[in-house]
Design a protein that fits this description.
alpha/beta, Rossmann fold, about 400 residues
Length: about 400
C-alpha cells in the first residue's frame, strides 16, 4: 500500500476540515442563511417530547439544488449519549415527481466537521449543505436524503463533537422524524458519513445492534470510521483546530475542565474566533497555512485527564455492531489515520459483521468522498435490491500482519 505522500497538501487544506475562520486569507465565505426561530426549541418539548418526534418542518427553496430536487427543513427530538432529551435540526432532500412503489429509498447523511456554534449547521449553508455536494448527488440518483445537523449546530444545546453515540442517534432519529415530515419517504434506509460523519457511522452501526430495525440496511463510512483519539492527536501536530473543537466539546461535557490547561494564549484567542466561525467545505481554502499545534497547544495536551476521559468514552472495545458496512479510505490518508480505520474494520470483522474495505487510489481525505461516489452508489443500490453482501474481511484481518 502506498504511504501518504501529500502531507503538505493536507496541512494547507486542513482549514476545510478543521476550522479556519471564513475570513482567513481574505476569501469570501460561502453563503450562510440567517439562524431563524425555526431552530428554537419549544418550551413544551422538555416535558412532552420524545426522540424521533417531529417538532416542526417547512419547505425551503433557498438551497442551490439540482433541478428536480426539493428540500424540507426539519426540527426533531433526539437523545445524547448521556441520555439527555434534546432537539436537533436538519434537512430532507427529495426528488420531485412521483415516488416509486414503497416510497423513496432513504440515505441518512452525516456531515464532516463544520464548526462548534449554532451558525455552523449545514442546513444553514446554501451550497447543498457544503458537503462537497454529495447529498445532492445522492438525490439526483433517486434517493431521499435525510441530512442531520447534529445537536448544537442549529439548535441551542452544547455540541457533541466526535461523540459517535450522540451523533449516531441524531442520524437515526432524523430518519424517524423525516418520515413524518415527508410521507413519500420509504421505510428502508442506509446511512453514509464522511470524516466526522464516518465516525458517526460507527455509532449508527453500534446503536442498530441493539435497536434491530429491520428497515436498516447498513452504513457507508468514508474516511473516519475509527476512534477519535488517533486522528485528533496526529493532525494536531501540524494543525490544531480539531483539538480546539475537542476542547469546546469537552468543556460542554465536563464544566470543571479548564481550557487554559491545554490551550496557549494564541489557542485561547483562536477558540473565541472559532466559536463564531464555521469550517468545512462550506468555507474557502485559506491562503495561509494553519498554525502549528505547538503554537496553540501545550505539550501532551491529549493527556489532560478530562481530554483523556473524553477519548476513552470512544475506546471501550466492547461495542457490538450491526452491518453490513462499507469502509472507504483514500490511499493518501496519513498512515496512522488510515490504520486507525483498518483497526476499526478488523474489530467489526471479528464479530462476524460483513465489512467491505476499499482503498481509493490517489485519493486523500478531501477528495475521497467525490472520488468514490460510484462505489458508494453501487453498494447502496445493491442493499436496496437485496443483492449479495460483499465481504473482504479475510483480507482486512491479515492487514499489517508480517
Amino acid at each position: 500500500m502506498k504511504r501518504f505522500s501529500s502531507w503538505n497538501y493536507l496541512v494547507s487544506a486542513l482549514g476545510l476540515l478543521a476550522g479556519l475562520p471564513p475570513s482567513a486569507g481574505g476569501a469570501k465565505p460561502k453563503e450562510l442563511f440567517p439562524l431563524t426561530d425555526f431552530y428554537d426549541t419549544p418550551e413544551s418539548f422538555a416535558t412532552t417530547g420524545q426522540p424521533g418526534d417531529l417538532i416542526r418542518s417547512m419547505k425551503f427553496e433557498g438551497y442551490r439544488l439540482p433541478k428536480g430536487v426539493g428540500a424540507t427543513r426539519i426540527l426533531y427530538g433526539t437523545e445524547t449519549s448521556q441520555g439527555n432529551l434534546v432537539a436537533c435540526s436538519g434537512a430532507v432532500l427529495v426528488p420531485k415527481g412521483e415516488a416509486p412503489e414503497g416510497g423513496w429509498p432513504v440515505i441518512a447523511w452525516a456531515h464532516g466537521t463544520s464548526g462548534v456554534t449554532r451558525r455552523c449547521a449545514p442546513s444553514l449553508m446554501a451550497e447543498c449543505f457544503a458537503d462537497y455536494g454529495a447529498p445532492c448527488i445522492y438525490a439526483e440518483n433517486g434517493y431521499a436524503v435525510v441530512a442531520t445537523d447534529y445537536v448544537g449546530l442549529g439548535t441551542n444545546y452544547p455540541v457533541n463533537y466526535m461523540d459517535r453515540i450522540s451523533n449516531g442517534r441524531d442520524v437515526i432519529n432524523g430518519v424517524m422524524a423525516a418520515r413524518k415530515a415527508v410521507p413519500a419517504l420509504g421505510r428502508k434506509w442506509v446511512a453514509i458519513g464522511h470524516s466526522a460523519g464516518a465516525h458517526a457511522m460507527r455509532g449508527v452501526a453500534e446503536l442498530e445492534a441493539d435497536i434491530g430495525d429491520p428497515s436498516y440496511l447498513g452504513v457507508v463510512a468514508v474516511s473516519g470510521l475509527g476512534d477519535s483519539r488517533t486522528p485528533m492527536v496526529v493532525l494536531s501536530k501540524e494543525a490544531a483546530y480539531l483539538a480546539i473543537y475537542i476542547a469546546e466539546a469537552v468543556k460542554a461535557r465536563y464544566p470543571a475542565f479548564n481550557q487554559n490547561e491545554i490551550l496557549k494564549e494564541k489557542g485561547l484567542e483562536l477558540l473565541e474566533t472559532l466559536k463564531e466561525a464555521c469550517s468545512g467545505p462550506g468555507t474557502p481554502i485559506p491562503r495561509e497555512p494553519p498554525a502549528k499545534g505547538s503554537d496553540l497547544l501545550v505539550e501532551n495536551w491529549q493527556l489532560n485527564p478530562f481530554i483523556d476521559e473524553y477519548f476513552k468514552l470512544d475506546e471501550t472495545n466492547q461495542e457490538k455492531y450491526e452491518g453490513p458496512v462499507l469502509v472507504i479510505n483514500g490511499e493518501e490518508e496519513p498512515p496512522q489515520t488510515l490504520s486507525n480505520d483498518i483497526e476499526a474494520a478488523k474489530q467489526m470483522c471479528e464479530q462476524g459483521v460483513d465489512v467491505q474495505l476499499n482503498i481509493i487510489k490517489g485519493a486523500n481525505h478531501f477528495t475521497v468522498l467525490r472520488a468514490s461516489i460510484k462505489e458508494q452508489l453501487t453498494w447502496i443500490a445493491d442493499r436496496f435490491a437485496g443483492r449479495e453482501i460483499p465481504n473482504n474481511c479475510e483480507t482486512i484481518l491479515k492487514w499489517g500482519m508480517v
